[in-house]
Amino acid sequence: MLLGLVLLMCAPACGPAREVLLLTAQPSRPKEGSSMTLICETQGTSRKTDAQLEFCFFKDGRALGQGWSSSPKLLLPTVWREDSGSYWCEEKTTALRATRSPRIQIQVQDNDASMVPGRGCGLPPEGVPVWNVSLEVQPPGGQVQKGKKLVLICLATQGTGDITFSWYKGALGLNLETKTQSSLAAKFEILAVTDSDTEKYYCTADNGYGPSISELVSVTVRSPVSRPVLTVGELGAQVFPGDTVELHCEAQSGSPPILYRFYHEDVILGSSSAPSGGGASFNLSLTAEHSGNYSCEADNGLGPQLSEAVPLTVTGRRPARDPSRSPPSPVPQVSNYVNSAAPLQEPSVYENVNVVSSGNEVYSLVYHTQQERPAAVEPRRTQSSDQDAAAIYFRLKKASVTDVDYEDAM
């Protein structure tokens, strides 16, 4: 731990770097138990010399010392192995404009660390740690077409000797490649990217003084659009001048956003955008001149695709309606209940079959019958006959026997 120091949090300033700010350590490879001085220096500045400056030093995300101060130097009286890590500094003016230096890796050495074979006893090793590591992407901007090549270039501003470069995928750091070479830059290639290569990437560089890490860089794999399909109104519907028809164009695949253009006989009618993918529509008010072939085009910046032509015929005139012709009145429907088990009955029929006289009174014996309409379902018959065998007597008061036509009754 750092002895005699108070660790305070001072908010790291944000914003793009406006000047070249460098952090150096004296000595660059301190020994355990010794002191170390951090120096924050501005190079290439165009500021006036009377500008009031403040400085803040950081280690692994923590502010060191008393936070912001007017001194560009910070003395660490005693350092130990656990004080090894990533250091940087920040500088700001009274206008709160701040710049941040690149990170440097400081490795606190054991007391006998200067004894390096081949360099002679007691001679300190020579070399400069790598710092200000960055990751560049080709094509620029990190937008790469599916199936094309992606190049990740790891760069270090400074560093001596052999440098080991490593490339990582995702925030969790899936190692993709590691190589060592005597240069400040190295590249890693993915020859044919797929959808799964859409991710954040970073790299590290290390020449023995501890790794320096780049910022995360986003890579997006984009797919070209497929050939779109155009639909014009309702299938088979007849259209007339004055109608409005909907033209709908949709590509089944392709990375958004997608721009759709609509054409009539190769003349553009208009365009519509689909920011999240899918299809787009265009409404057209028809005239007689709008008969012909229609098509649409889909484009997401990776090459346009044109649909097949769809014909549309605009009928010259909508048929007029004849007011003299009115629809026939509906015929009242009488329910026959054909499926009912109960038969429909016809009017009753009475038949005079016998005449009996008794004194001045005449009795007539008749049979009562009913004709039935066959039902859809044959009803269950009972033991009674179709003719009611029970006689119905009608008493004819004060009727003379001579008034009865016996011959008709018989």
From TrEMBL:
Pfam families in the record: Ig_2, Ig_3
Primary location: membrane
Statement: the UniProt record of this protein carries the keyword Disulfide bond: yes
Single GO MF annotation: transmembrane signaling receptor activity
Annotated signal peptide: 1-17
Chain ranges of the Ig-like domain: 16-105, 129-220, 228-315
UniProt-listed GO biological process terms: cell surface receptor signaling pathway; immune response
Disordered: region residues: 315-334
Keywords attached to this entry: Cell membrane, Disulfide bond, Glycoprotein, Immunoglobulin domain, Membrane, Signal
SUPFAM superfamilies assigned to the protein according to its UniProt record, in alphabetical order: Immunoglobulin
PROSITE patterns for this protein: IG_LIKE
Any one Gene Ontology cellular component term annotated for this protein: external side of plasma membrane
InterPro entries the UniProt entry points to: Ig-like_dom (IPR007110), Ig-like_dom_sf (IPR036179), Ig-like_fold (IPR013783), Ig_Fc_receptor (IPR050488), Ig_sub (IPR003599), Ig_sub2 (IPR003598)
Subcellular location: Cell membrane
UniProt KW Lipid metabolism keyword: no
Source organism, top-level taxon: Eukaryota
PANTHER family linked: FC RECEPTOR-LIKE PROTEIN 4 (PTHR11481:SF64), IMMUNOGLOBULIN FC RECEPTOR (PTHR11481)
Protein name: Fc receptor like 1
Organism: Ailuropoda melanoleuca (Giant panda)
